[in-house]
Fold Type II secretion system protein.
Amino acid sequence: MTAQPRPARACPRPRAGPPTGPGARLAAGPGAGHGAAREAAQQGFTLIEVLVAFVIVIMAFSVVYRGMVDGVAASQVAIRAQQAISRAQSHLAAVGHGMRVGVLEQDGDDGSGFHWHVRILPEQTEQTALGGLGLYRVEVSESWPDPQTATGRRMLVLHTRRLGPAGEAP
């Protein structure tokens, strides 16, 4: 019998050692033979992690949004309060210059939802009137609508004292 050459193999022999290549997996520890089940469980955890991250991002955005809304609301209140201060100071400046100093109570609308009220009462003092003048307590209040408050309105009050003709009874 004559020796015939062996045909070449289509697949090379497997090498000894750990597998290599793009589809290779390293098996280590117990349960290493359950690669498909492990991969499915890992994909499930990845989905849960993505959902948790998504919820955290939504919560962070809602906190930032709420902060921005509160900031805008606070700036609007500050703007309206500044307008009320300006209007109340104008009414206060009118006392003694166009509005008599004496026992008085007046109110009216200032426009843009503002309402003013002026009250002038004699100040109780131990001193006698000097030169026919008496001391009066002047109170000017300015109010405006604000749905954020329990009463639905905000109010600002300015106080001062003015000299006026003495002897007027309340």
